[in-house]
Task: inverse folding
């Protein structure tokens, strides 16, 4: 980028400096006119970089020098180009998922290995972008905390029998409550328990 800017500066200097040493003080020569034309073209090109489109399932989060300015709805929009403003496009309908696995100690101090899949969507794009520093990492941390609360309060024999079907919905409820308290802008749509493994009694 620096090399490109330097090349344009050299071209601009050669155009605007064409009259140096041989012109009169009245009026601008061809070099000066060419320089203004080039500046105008560069300015127009820079302004055009502010055009952006938001699709139906998306929202545009406009920031000015890093601070939130507005949320734009679907359609064609324009913002002050970089480095003044920037736009982060957030899809509020797309459902993403991630696999989560961990070892947890039960109430009777037995280790269980849990694998689950968490599905979520970014329901509030402004909160998702600004309320927490790293929302995806926060989601995983809170998932583990919620799962520990569910698994850690039940003995192994109860957990793998009568309460096995309760693990996913209880984890989802605790997870969603915590995310709402954080204002993370994330909605957990489902959690599925993929595997619950534990050592057999010797």
Result:
């Amino acid at each position: 980028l620096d090399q490109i800017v330097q090349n344009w500066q050299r071209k601009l200097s050669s155009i605007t400096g064409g009259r140096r040493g041989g012109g009169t003080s009245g009026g601008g020569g061809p070099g000066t006119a060419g320089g203004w034309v080039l500046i105008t073209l560069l300015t127009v090109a820079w302004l055009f970089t502010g055009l952006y489109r938001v699709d139906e399932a998306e929202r545009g989060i406009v920031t000015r020098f890093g601070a939130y300015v507005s949320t734009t709805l679907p359609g064609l929009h324009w913002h002050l180009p970089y480095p003044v403003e920037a736009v982060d496009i957030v899809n509020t309908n797309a459902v993403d998922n991630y696999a989560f696995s961990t070892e947890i100690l039960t109430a009777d101090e037995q280790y269980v290995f849990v694998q689950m899949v968490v599905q979520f969507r970014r329901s509030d794009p402004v909160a998702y972008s600004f309320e927490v520093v790293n929302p995806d990492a926060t989601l995983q941390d809170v998932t583990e905390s919620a799962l520990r609360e569910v698994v850690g309060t039940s003995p192994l024999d109860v957990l793998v029998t009568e309460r096995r079907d309760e693990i996913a919905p209880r984890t989802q409820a605790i997870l969603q409550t915590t995310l709402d308290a954080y204002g993370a802008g994330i909605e957990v749509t489902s959690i599925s328990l993929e595997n619950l493994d534990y050592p057999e009694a010797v």
